[in-house]
Amino acid sequence: MTAAHPVTAPPRAPHATGDVGTVVACPGHVDPRRTVGRLRRGAGDPTWATVDGAVWHATRRASGPATLRLTGVPGGVRADAWGPGAADVLADVPGLLGLLDDPTGFAAHLHPAVARAHRTHASLRLARGGDVWSTVVTSVLEQRVVGTDAKASWRRLVARHGDPAPGPAPAGLRVAPPPAAWGALPVWEWRQAGVDAHRADAVRRAAAVAHRLTPDLAPAELGRRLQTVPGIGPWTAAEVTSRALGDPDAVQVGDAHLPHLVGWALTGRRADDAGMLHLLAPWAGHRQRVLVLLEVAYRGAMPAYGPRGRRALPMR
């Protein structure tokens, strides 16, 4: 993240600092903006904004809603936060920027394609988003539909039912609703947002146990708890642990796109889930890292095998 000009956003002064703030040092070989960008669900995601080089994020913690602003400064990132959850979201910034991601033991050299992707995209790290609940919702919305449709549903539901971001946030920045609000949404709101009953029911069921889906859990335990919810399977669990917890070994089994990507990149042929798991086995502990690198390196280069965008199969 390069140095940026101050954000001009009413109602506070353009140079306003947050309720709490800090400067986080970042090694020169790490690219925080790129790392954080993977958490954004499309350019129109109402929980994210980029204004004059500063990245804004509206989120929620157990302590309440918060707005985070990340601004590049020499040698690192200036983080300012507003709202009841400001202190908690500020504490999560190192993970959000990928600074807690540990690639120790990652043997990129085991395959030329992985080594090339790692060399080309060495600045990329796995972000730990910290907001488990919102990641559950976005992941469920992405089940069985193309990504553009899921992102449109998220955008509409958060814009209509979310809360204005605290502090001097850019216009339109919203905090996604808490679990109770998602659980209480009427049927017609889901339908108008293009969400079928299967996905809506899965979100409602998850909302009832959201208090047990906390960011302090290990990825394996969070994944296990998620999969006790009817309508949430291994694909959704892996999406949540990879994005919310920065799980470096998560694998989205059941994806219509990833097996073909892995097969094509590593062997030149299509693969199914079993084939993907076999090909990824040498990188156990870092399989999500390989998936992310291959997605970034081969985006747009892989032959078209089916519908564009990511699809997840209905899994229970």
From TrEMBL:
<dbReference type="InterPro" id="IPR051912">
    <property type="entry name" value="Alkylbase_DNA_Glycosylase/TA"/>
</dbReference>
<keyword id="KW-0234">DNA repair</keyword>
<dbReference type="InterPro" id="IPR011257">
    <property type="entry name" value="DNA_glycosylase"/>
</dbReference>
<protein>
    <submittedName>
        <fullName>3-methyladenine DNA glycosylase/8-oxoguanine DNA glycosylase</fullName>
    </submittedName>
</protein>
<keyword id="KW-0227">DNA damage</keyword>
